[in-house]
Structure formats: structure tokens, C-alpha cells
Amino acid sequence: MTAFAVESSGLTKRFGRQVAVDAVDLAVPRGTVYGFLGPNGSGKTTTIRMLLGLIRPTDGGHALLGERMPAGAARVLPKVGALVEGPGFHPYLSGIDNLRRLDAADRTADRKNADARIRSALDRVGLGAAARKRYRAYSLGMRQRLALAAAILAPRDLLILDEPTNGLDPQGTREVRALIAALAAEGSTVLLSTHLLSEVEQICGHVGVMHQGKLVAQSTLADLRAEATPRVRVTTDRPHDAARVLRELGLTDVVTGGVEAAGVLGPIAPEKVVAALVHDGVPVRGFGVVAPDLEELFVGLTGEGFDVSG
Amino acid sequence: MSAVDAPAFFVSELRLVSRRRRNQAGLAVLAAVPIIIAVAMKVAAPSSSSSSQGPEFFGSITSNGYFVALAALAVEIQLLLPIAVATIAGDSVAGEANQGTLRYLLTVPVDRTRLLAVKFAAIVVGAFVATMTVATAGLLAGWALFGAGPVTLLSGSQASVGGSLLRLLAMCAYLTVCLAALGAIGLFVSTLTEQPMGATIAITIIAVTSWVLGAVPQLDWLHPYLLTNSWTAFGELMRSPIAWEPLRDGLLSAAAYMLIFLSAAWARFTTADVSS
């Protein structure tokens, strides 16, 4: 048994001249919740489609749960639950009939307890009451829940979830996060593709960041935070003087705004900054050292916010 | 992986096709045609002699209700039965792609070859049900309005009611094989697109074009290769002895079409990127 639930080397997908995924080396350790981050269009979904064998890589390869793909698909995919690019179901079938169809298609599924498994999956995602409604009458949130139910129809060792909280209201989002945490606690590895950083901060232990088809960072969330340098923030009625002092001390990326001056601390001790400010007669009303939040880290890595990559 | 599990997906596929309202409405239309034929012939019967000119089998309807089924098959094989097959075949893969269900089936996982096999089997069952619906509705309407009895064959001899029903069943089976060839083309077309309606229209156009080319005498060199060339040969089963040669040609032609287009569908679908 390998240590990684998902492992890829040089995974590449080109569409004509465009490189959608560029030599991605994923390493998702077993038992973790791995946040797969990136702006829209950065290649996350294309990577996930390759991982599941829906599209063929132009180059490179990967393994799921230690099985080479796509050769081992028939053996490994029954142990993988997936939600890819939103829900997809037959509109004129009820929620429960849609799940029955997927279960019937699974040759490894145990027919004897099918009804019990389908019921329990529906209950876990909170769709028990709406199970017999036609799918076309479902709201976006209910559709998303049904897709999650499909992903947990059988016990899974690996869950690959692409934007699972899309279209859910705040209450639904909390419920789905709790569900993912519970599934992880039961021993499933979760690869969670998302652009919601709050989601990552709350449930992920590892992160991988995609940008323009490349995996630009991959580590534990703690390591990613440790690498990030903290900033100081000075509150004063003379922000320009404060900024001058910060620059003289060697702080970088110094900015002013309103009654504040801020800069990246680097190797300088914060107490020295306070002493220098006071020594120069800058009235300090407030002083703080702030670790960058995930969004700032993310912007630093991808050079952008949530704009669509070209 | 046991043999007992294997049909579960096929049963689910049949349920999916048969429970769709559109397909149920389509079957109702197929069944309505023989009823209309029977009623029209009944209303017109007093003023027209049984020797009147008309399409195949029509002239015999007033003497035996059995011929309503044959007349209906002869009429519907021209367009309505091909449309029925085109509807199911066009939807087979393109419909799943269009709804996004294809990616979820493939990640279950359903092997792509198995998916095609199940889809094609469902098309063939659909073609058989459609043909049997036409025959049964025709038989019942015909018997109700013109009575049942021993059937006079095209060669002049008589066939018992039981024997004539066996012949009708054989005709439905023959037409099912013919329509399965169209279904194989349809399955291939359906792997090319994510638009099921577009696929259905394309398949219908293929069938209609084949009929049209078959009706142009200047193209007689082409006729033996046309998909629909031997479809009307089902009438040969009404001879005694049965003229097997045209039927054998029809079955061989259908088998060739199936071989070519099922291979094409397999080659296309097992290597295609599913990005729907």
C-alpha cells in the first residue's frame, strides 16, 4: 500500500496548442483532506477529469490508491467517489431512482443491501424527504446534495469532490463541510477542489495550488503559512512618517492608507520597529504583527484573485 | 462481477427507455397508424372493390383483418419505425453526455465497451417492441373490424391462423434486425455529439436518404448497398414456400452494417475524451 491516495507525475493535457494542465505532480497523502485550489480556468477540473480517466493525459501518468490509471480503473474506481463539475442526473427520474441507476451500473455493488445503502446516502446528505421528487424539481442545492449522495453510495477510500458546496445556502455549506469532515474521520482521503478559501482553512490539512495549468505550491497548510512572512501594521495620525521609518528599517512592500502604514516584516524583530517609531517621534496609536491570511497567500502564489485565467 | 449482476445495468437501461414519456407517446403513435388504416378501410370498403390499387397488402385487408398488420408494417417501416429507432439511438450516448450522466456512469465505473453493448442491446429491444406494437395493434384492429381466419398467402395457398401468426412474428424479427442496422449507425452518430436531438435527426435523414436513393432507378448499381434495400423483403415470408434469398441478403446486409458501425462506435467511444 502506497502512502499516497493520489499520485501523478508530469500529468499534462494539451488541447491543440493550449496547455490546460502542465506537468502536474500531485501527491495526496492517504487520510488527509487535500484542498485543491486555483482560480477558475486554472486546470483543476481538467486535472480531475484526467485523474478519473474521463479524458486521456497528453503526457505523464497517475495512480489512484496505488493502482495505475487508466489500466486499473475497474479495480480502483469502485473505491473512489466523485463529484465532477456539478451534478448530472436524469431530469425525469426521481432522486432515488437516479441513485438506483448508478448503483445498478456498479458491478461491484452488493445488490442485497442496495436499498439500505441508497437510503443512508440520501439521509446523510439531508435528502431523505425529497428522495421521490423528480430531479428536475430539485433546487441547485438539492442537486448538489444528490451528487454528493452518489459519491458516497458505497464505502469509499477516496473522494474526489469538485466544488461540492456550489449552490448551497450557508446552512447547507456548513452541513456539507461537516459531512466531509465526518467522511475524513471515517478514514476516507478527500481531494477537495474549491475556490472558497474559508472552506480550505476550516477542513483541509494539505493544499495544492494551481495556476495557469501548473501546480505552483503543494504542502501542508501549516507549512504554507510558516513560509509566509508576517506584516506589521502601524496605526498613527502621521502614516507617511511611519512609512519612512519602516523603509529606513528595511521593511519591504511598505504601503500607507488612512491612519495606517504597513510593511512586510522580514527578519526584523517587531520590538525594534516600535522602538524606532517612538525614537523618531511618530505617535503610535496601535501596532500589530499580522500573519497573512490564506487569501493573501493565494494571491501571492497566483498573482491574482479570482479572475479567470486565460 | 458474477453473471447475476451483469443484467442489472441492462434492466436499468430498459426501464430508463420505457419509462420516458416521449417514448411512450411514440409507441402510441406507432400503434395508432394501423388503427387508422383499419378504420379508413372499413369506412371506404362498401364503395371500393377489394381489387383496388394501393400499397402492398392493402387490397387484402377487407378479406382478412390479418393484413392490416402487414399493411401497417409496410407503411411504418418507411418512416415512423426508423424515427422510433433514431430517437432511442440518438439519445443513447449523446443524451447521457448532454445531461452530464455520462461522466458519472464512467466513474462508477462502467467500462466503455460495456456501456456501448448495453446501449445497443436496449436499441435492439426498442426496435423489437416498436415493430411488435405495430403488428399487434394492426392485428387487433384488423380482427375487430374485418374478422380473423385462415390467411390466403401471396402464392395462393392457405395458412392457418397459428401459422400466419408465426409468419407475422418472423416478419417482426426480420424487421428488428433491419432496424438494428440503423440502430448501429445511430449508436455511432450518438458518440459523435452531445446533442441527442441532432443525432436523432441525422439518423432519420440517413434512413430517409437511403429510401430516396433506392427509389431512383438510375442508381440501380447502388441499390444493393443501401441500408433500406431489403427492408421490404419481409413480405417474402408471405409466400409458400418462403423465398429465402431476399431475406438472407437483407440479413447479411444488416449484419455488415452492424459490424462496420458498431466497430466505428467502439473505436470512437473507447478513445474519446469525455468532457461533457
TrEMBL record, chain A:
Pfam family name, one: ABC_tran
Top-level lineage group: Bacteria
Keyword Nucleus: no
UniProt cross-references to SMART domains, sorted A to Z: AAA
Residue intervals of the ABC transporter domain: 6-237
UniProt cross-references to InterPro entries, sorted A to Z: AAA+_ATPase, ABC_transporter-like_ATP-bd, ABC_transporter-like_CS, P-loop_NTPase
Cited Gene3D superfamilies: P-loop containing nucleotide triphosphate hydrolases (3.40.50.300)
Family: Belongs to the ABC transporter superfamily.
Name this protein carries in UniProt: ABC transporter ATP-binding protein
Source organism: Phytohabitans aurantiacus
Source organism phylogeny: Bacteria, Bacillati, Actinomycetota, Actinomycetes, Micromonosporales
UniProtKB/TrEMBL annotation, chain B:
Origin superkingdom: Bacteria
Keyword Membrane: yes
Keyword tags: Membrane, Transmembrane, Transmembrane helix
Membrane-crossing residue ranges in chain numbering: 25-45, 65-89, 120-146, 166-189, 201-219, 250-269
Family matches, as Pfam families: ABC2_membrane_4
Entry protein name: ABC transporter permease
